[in-house]
Each structure stands twice: as C-alpha cells, then as structure tokens.
Design goal:
The relative contact order is 0.05. By secondary structure, the chain is an all-alpha fold. Helix content is 66%, strand content 2%. The longest helix has 65 residues. The N and C termini lie far apart (146 Å). The chain contains ten helices and two strands, in the order ααααααααββαα.
Length: 354
C-alpha cells in the first residue's frame, strides 16, 4: 500500500486548526493545484488535487476528523490491508488512505478495492464464527441496484465482530497462585479484550461510513432525494398559493355580492323617493337655511353632503322602509274603500229600479 500523507500536512495547517482555517487553506491550494490550471503537469496536479479533496473531506466533518485524530498514527503507518495475525482481525488502516484506489473501474478502482476489503473482513469473521455460515453481500459496482447498496451499508454500519481477541490478555491464568488471584487476572484480561473488541467494531463501522460518504451511488441517490424534496416543496408552495388565490377570490366574490346587495338597497331607496315625489310633489333643493328635508325622518339638512351621509345611515333606511310599508297599506285601504263605495252605488240603483 502507498504511504499516506497526513491530512494536516497536505493542507499545510496545524492539527488544532479551526474550521475556517481548514476551509481557507483548501480553497487556496485548490486554486493552485486544480488540473484545469495545470495542463503542463496534469498527472502531478491530479494526484495533488485528489489529496486536497480527501484532506478537506475528512477534516471538514467533525465526526470523521475526531476519528482521524484518534487513529492518525495507525493510519499513517499503513499496512498490508490483510489479516494482521491470529486473533487480531484485519488491518483496516490502509483503506482510509485516498491513494488506496484510483478512479472507479479496474483492479485499482473504488468498487473493486473496497469489495476486496470488506470481503477480507467477512471471511476473517467466518473463520472464527461458530454459528451458521452466511453469504457475503457484495459491494457491487456502479450498476448495482440501490436496494442492495443500502443493504450492504446497513450490515457494515452495525458490524459486531465474532473475534474474542485473546491475544490482548495480559496475564497467563496458569501463573495464578490461587483462585482469587486467578479471578482478578481473568477480570483484567476480559477488560482488555472488550476494549480491543469495541475498538475493532468502531473501526469497521467507521470504514463503512468513510466509504459510504465517497460512494457515487450514494451521492446520486441523495441527489435524487434532494430533487424530490425540492419538487415536493415547490408543489406545496404552489398549492399554498392556489389556496390563497381561492381565498382571495372568495373574499372578492363576497365583497362583490355585498356591493350588489347595497346597490339594490340604494335603487330601492331611489324608487321610494320617486314614489314620494309623485305622491307629494318634488321638493326643490335650496341653498337657504332650510336646505334638504327628509320626509321619512322628518329632518332637514343644510348641505348636500349631510344629505348624502344621511341617506346611507341605518336609521334613514329603516324609516324609509317603514314609510314605504305605511304608504302601501294606505293604498290598499284606499282601493278597498273605492270598491266599497262602488258596491253601495250599485245597491242604490237596484232599489230605485224596483
């Protein structure tokens, strides 16, 4: 495996650099080493730009940076990437180096390299597994269905090793002087084994997360989800706007109906005024002290503005309606009276003939 350069050295920053310092260093060096600006040294620029991207990707992620800081020395030492010895599991540190793969196709490509890495872990686990043997879920390639990709990462992100790590034992129980000492030895050995087991589980899970973050299939799927989210958000926004338009249209319809209803009231008042003019004679407006007089309200107004405001008042409308009803009743009684007189005249004429 190729020796890995420290991410901090690649960016030229201190190990306690802030997020802002990491971002600025990356942007500055990316402008220098971008392949499009280095056609005269394309191979060197491509490799350097790849290291910059890997360093920035790791150090800009708080969780990944913390894990890298805790395992930095082991990662930089590298290894073979194969089983590290009896009861030690697979040496995974080389697979955290960006130089472990080149491109995405071929023997050194992303898919093949990590397929072999996880296959090595799988068969190493099967060698110590006392239970039923399982089938290896292949890492796949660019054409693998995403349901299989999801299943692969779900398995490795929840990895629990079958190894017991007895090689971590500090004490040989055969050297115990008595049963009590033996128990103390066994307790300390178990603590060391559990610590190593927990660390190995975390390393395998972190490798799965490391690979997943760089997997083009995952990035494409996340892009589709984001596109779907944006479309749903847009549809929801349009629906909200349509609802707002409908509400506005309903409010406008109500306003229009109210205006039409009010107009009908005014037309009725105008008709009533016409009837009053026919009944009592039209009154002339005067600029004198008396001004305009309202028959219905028995009240005079000095200006046209006062008269207009009065015509829109509830009291005036009510009085006009009452006056109209009274006039209509008088008309009915008058007609009934004429009919009665005609009947009496007919009776008198009949009596005279007799």
């Amino acid at each position: 495996m190729t020796t890995m350069r420290c991410h901090y050295d690649v960016l030229g920053i201190a190990r306690d650099a802030t997020d802002d310092e990491i971002r600025k260093a990356y942007r500055k060096l990316a402008l220098v080493w971008h392949p499009d600006k280095n056609m005269h040294r394309l191979e060197e620029a491509t490799e350097q730009f790849k290291l910059l991207q890997a360093a920035h990707s790791t150090l800009s992620d708080p969780q990944e940076r913390a894990w890298y800081d805790n395992h930095r020395e082991a990662i930089l030492r590298g290894g073979t990437g194969m089983s590290s010895g009896e009861d030690e599991g697979v040496d995974l540190m080389p697979f955290f180096a960006p130089s472990v793969y080149s491109g995405f196709t071929g023997d050194k490509g992303f898919y093949n390299v990590y397929n072999q890495a996880f296959k090595e872990i799988f068969y190493d686990e099967q060698s110590v597994n006392q239970g039923p043997q399982e089938d290896f879920v292949a890492f796949g390639n660019a054409e693998t269905d995403y349901s299989d990709v999801r299943e692969f990462y779900q398995h490795w992100e929840n990895f629990v090793t079958e190894r017991q790590f007895h090689s971590c034992d500090k004490w040989d129980l055969r050297d115990a002087e008595n049963r009590q000492v033996r128990r103390l030895m066994e307790k300390e050995n178990k603590k060391l084994r559990d610590t190593r087991k927990k660390e190995y589980n975390a390393t395998v899970r972190q490798l799965a997360a490391f690979v997943k973050k760089r997997d083009p299939r995952v990035k494409e799927y996340q892009a589709k989800l984001e596109q779907k989210r944006l479309e749903e958000e847009k549809a929801a926004k349009l629906a909200k706007e349509e609802a707002k338009k409908r509400k506005s249209a309903n409010a406008e319809a109500i306003r229009r109906q109210h205006a039409e209803s009010q107009q009908r009231v005014y037309e009725g008042l105008d008709h009533l005024d016409s009837m009053l003019d026919q009944e009592y004679g039209a009154h002339e407006e005067s600029d004198g002290a008396e001004g305009t007089y309202c028959v219905a309200c028995n009240k005079g107004f000095k200006s046209a503005k006062q008269w207009e405001n009065h015509q829109q008042s509830k009291k005036h409308i009510a009085n006009v309606a009452a006056l109209k009803a009274e006039l209509e009743q008088d008309d009915e009684e008058f007609e009934d009276g004429e009919e009665g007189e005609e009947g009496e005249e007919e009776v008198d004429e009949e009596e005279e003939e007799q």
